[in-house]
Amino acid sequence: MLRKTTFLLIHSTTVAVATAICGILAPSAEAASFFSFTPVVNNGDLIPNTNNFFNSYNQPSINERGLVVFRARSQGGAGQPVSGIFARDMGIPGSPINTLATRTTAVPFPNNTGATFNEFPSFPRIDSETDMLAFRGQSQPVWQVIDPSTGETVTKVGTTGVYTTNPAGDLITGATQLGSLSDFSFFQVPGATAGTKFDQFPGAPSPTDGNTVAFKGNWTDSGTGTGKTGVYFRNVLANGGQSIVNLIADSNTLIPGTTLGTKFGSTAPPSAAKGQAVFLGVDNEENPTEGGIYQALLSDPTILNTVVALGSTPAGTDKAITRLGEALSFDGRNVAYWGALGTETRTITLSCPTEGNKDLVEFCNQEYPEGFTTEVPVNQGIFLTDVKTLETRLVAQTGSDYADFVFWNFSGRPPGVGEGEEGTDAELARWRSTSFVATEGSGLVFKALKTSGVQGLYSSLSPDLPIHTVVETGMDGGILDPQATGLLISSLGVERDGFRKGQLVFNASMLGTAEEDSWAGIYYGKAVIPTPALLPGLIGMGVAVLRKRRDASEDSSNT
């Protein structure tokens, strides 16, 4: 993507000239012109220190200097597949793939049982300005409580947590279920009865400022037995690594601006950057009527600032926002997100997956033999809001070009798998939906389904430039990876930390005509950015092209 300084130089041009410039830089639909692509990892790479090849990948994240972190696994085969969190520094040519954590990695302190990770439920995220990353990890119980009088084990606890890295790159615990133990009271739920522990940490935690991780936490009210939820953060380095968890908002927090005394009934995992966090909070997850996207300064998290509220009508449309997406991409100034406009819906039927975990596929077909039918909003948009000025831009909307910005998958734990086992906190499998967007400054990349049935990644570089196709399904895989030449791109994925400082990372799969012809990987796109010295020439070329087209049109009309 063009960098912010380039955006400002182009702002003074007209959309027509900008389109001509795009035409100069993009000679064909398959050129993916603004980016030159390089594989970060693909099916031809061995997982470090194993004889297993990488086989499947979740959406990656990248920081400003080009460090890419990703979740991936090997193919099954005779034994359990290798699964873990990995990294590769794309800022250094030829850098190797490094392992950060796998199923054989010991969970960091607190851990007196020698427990190792057994699953990584979400994609890893990375701080934009440092190498600090964060991810969720599940394990066997990490702590056994010993009766001092008998020496016998009283209980074993702690099967899930949030994990991050210190400046040396070592794994450390950001949040855990051990808050009910007196030795680890700094992990307890703030604002709840003393000694209340977290039950689970849904979603992907977000690191920031090289020392802090923001996350969503679920817990149980000890007085009522009611499940609660909230958004929190913790400085993992302060106070010798024993700083307390801090509250941003939870189920006891009033929704800002409410006239009915309504509290948050649902909060989504936050995105944090540059001493701030943003999150979606609503009264009712299934049928929200109050709430919106909120910003908090981590220096004073008691004050929630409304970024966009349900019921508000953004510029560029005459319809009110009725729903907002949980996945927020935030760079400390701008937040990108999905929203539904108005109440009109259409019916879709989703087919169960045909590939992947066989137990999951079988369970889906048992539950939904005729497919899963649901309603989706007709009018949808991808938005970008400046949290300082509160100016909102409607970047893209459904209509003639785009059919949908919401994507579905059937995921979770199949019934009977892991039941009764320690360390299993995964939710029973169900259909889930989300949107995908990544922002940097006034530019962003989003995933969309076109009305033609093609899916792709698309970029908006600035308010004055047209939306540009980055890559689409059906294109030859060779534009991403020489080893995929002749195969057609079949799926694409991007996440909220996937676009930083002109660098885009995403996962892609490719298929051929034969069943065994397939390829996949994670790809790094470096923006081909014209230098400021060349921009006047490019703009001049754009004007010349427009004049030539106009003259040709006039000549044609005079014949």
SSE blueprint:
Blueprint: H1 4-10, H2 15-25, E1 35-42, E2 54-57, E3 61-62, E4 67-74, E5 83-89, E6 97-102, E7 117-119, E8 125-126, E9 133-139, E10 143-146, E11 153-157, E12 160-165, E13 171-176, E14 198-200, E15 206-208, E16 212-220, E17 227-235, H3 238-241, E18 246-250, E19 266-267, E20 271-273, E21 276-282, E22 291-297, E23 300-309, E24 321-324, E25 329-330, E26 334-341, E27 345-350, H4 358-367, E28 372-377, E29 380-386, E30 392-397, E31 402-404, E32 407-411, E33 430-434, E34 437-440, E35 443-450, E36 455-460, E37 468-472, E38 488-493, E39 499-500, E40 503-511, E41 518-527, H5 535-558
Antiparallel strand pairs: 1-41, 2-4, 3-4, 4-5, 5-6, 7-9, 8-9, 9-12, 10-11, 12-13, 14-16, 15-16, 16-17, 17-18, 19-21, 20-21, 21-22, 22-23, 24-26, 25-26, 26-29, 27-28, 29-30, 31-35, 32-33, 34-35, 35-36, 36-37, 38-40, 39-40, 40-41
Which keywords apply here?
five-stranded antiparallel beta sheet; 5 helices; 559 residues; disordered C terminus; signal; PTPA-CTERM sorting domain-containing protein; globular; disordered N terminus; mainly beta
Give an account of the 3D structure:
Keywords: Signal. Residues 1-31 form the signal peptide. It comes from Oscillatoriales cyanobacterium SpSt-418. This is PTPA-CTERM sorting domain-containing protein. With 559 residues, this protein is mainly beta. The chain has a domain at 106-310. It is 10% helix and 41% strand. The chain has five helices and 41 strands. Strands 1, 38, 39, 40 and 41 form a five-stranded antiparallel β-sheet that branches. Strands 2, 3, 4, 5 and 6 form a five-stranded antiparallel β-sheet that branches. Strand 29 and strand 30 form a beta hairpin. Helix 2 (15-25) crosses helix 5 (535-558). The relative contact order is 0.14. Residues 1-32, 419-425 and 530-559 have low confidence and may be disordered.
